[in-house]
Design a protein that fits this description.
Elements: E1 12-14, E2 19-21, H1 39-45, E3 49-54, E4 59-63, E5 68-76, E6 81-82, E7 84-89, H2 95-107, E8 116-121, E9 124-125, E10 130-136, E11 139-145, E12 154-159, E13 173-178, E14 181-183, E15 187-189, E16 193-198, E17 204-211, H3 214-225, E18 236-246, E19 251-255, E20 261-266, E21 283-289
Parallel strand pairs: 3-5, 13-16, 15-21
Antiparallel strand pairs: 1-2, 3-4, 5-10, 6-9, 7-8, 7-11, 11-12, 13-14, 16-19, 17-18, 17-20, 20-21
């Protein structure tokens, strides 16, 4: 898939073991920030904690591996940036069966339908920490760090059924991807807990780029819709992801840490005929304020 100037292109599942590969972005949405913790951050701290550690050659998953609401805390060393992804196998599907479907999934991640689901996808830079919240069902999972090139490190793990699953705190807002657009408020506040969800039937992502100004953000959104990706570079100051590619009904939530400004949301997954979702209307400008 095409590499975009300021945001990562859509993730591609490669048929080499569990080779989930994606290009990198230049910033992230959920990294920890110094200062007084917000009410949302305090609420998150009460959730069971799952840890993800990445070295560029290995990914390790530990902590409270139980179903229900969890906070997933990811760190990386040995590489500039990590991108942990959790894929949940459908009940009764074995790892061998999962690997067999990967040649078709390499062409289109939607071919995982009926076999597995991409349930979380976040990013973390070296020296920082990414914290997101998710609601995990019991079952067999595979974690992969898809930030680098070539076959990524991966590890299978099991989420057991909790006797009393924890409940996620209610988010202040929900930004949802659908076919083909985004739904939710046009203004988000720094420090608020926001849910980013895929309510469409296809695999979608919610990437972002910060416009140099309000006018530049709206111009960049228009250029993306017109397929003029490279022309957007001078209009933005950087980008990242609120949620990487997620399967139908997948979601993750996080505390907004972004610098205030106007942001362009976009999905760069592709249709079967090779068109990016963004040219079909999956672009939107939102305003992040203090």
């Amino acid at each position: 898939m095409k590499r975009i100037v300021y945001v990562r292109a859509s993730a591609v599942i490669v048929a080499v073991g569990l080779s989930l590969a994606a290009t990198g972005s230049v910033s992230l949405a959920a990294s920890s920030a110094p200062g007084k913790p917000s009410r949302a951050a305090a609420s998150s701290a009460s959730l069971p904690k799952i840890t993800v550690a990445m070295t560029g050659k290995k990914i390790t998953v530990g902590g409270a591996l139980h179903s229900g609401g969890v906070r997933i805390v990811s760190t990386v060393s040995g590489e500039r940036q990590g991108e942990p992804v959790f894929v949940r196998l459908n009940p009764g599907v074995t790892l061998n069966q999962f690997f067999k479907v990967l040649p078709r999934a390499a062409a289109d991640p939607n071919n995982l339908d009926g076999i597995a689901s991409i349930v979380i996808d976040t990013m973390v830079s070296r020296g920082q920490t990414s914290t997101i919240q998710a609601d995990l069902e019991p079952g067999l999972y595979v974690a992969a760090d898809i930030a680098g090139k070539g076959q990524p490190p991966l590890t299978p793990f099991t989420i057991s059924k909790a006797a009393t699953p924890a409940k996620l705190p209610a988010p202040k807002a929900v930004i949802a991807a659908i076919e083909f657009g985004f739904r939710g408020p046009g203004k988000l506040h720094v420090g608020d807990l926001v849910r980013f969800a895929n309510r469409g039937f296809l695999v979608h992502m919610i990437d972002f780029a910060r416009g140099r100004s309000k006018a530049d953000a709206f111009k960049a959104a228009r250029l993306l819709r017109e397929g003029k990706f490279r022309q957007t570079g001078p209009l933005v100051t950087g980008g990242g992801t609120f949620a990487g590619p997620l399967s139908h009904s997948g979601f993750q939530q996080l505390v907004i840490r972004n610098r205030p400004g106007y942001y362009v949301l976009a999905c760069f997954m592709e249709t079967q005929d090779g068109r990016d979702h963004v040219v079909l209307g999956m672009e939107r400008v939102i305003h992040i304020v203090r």
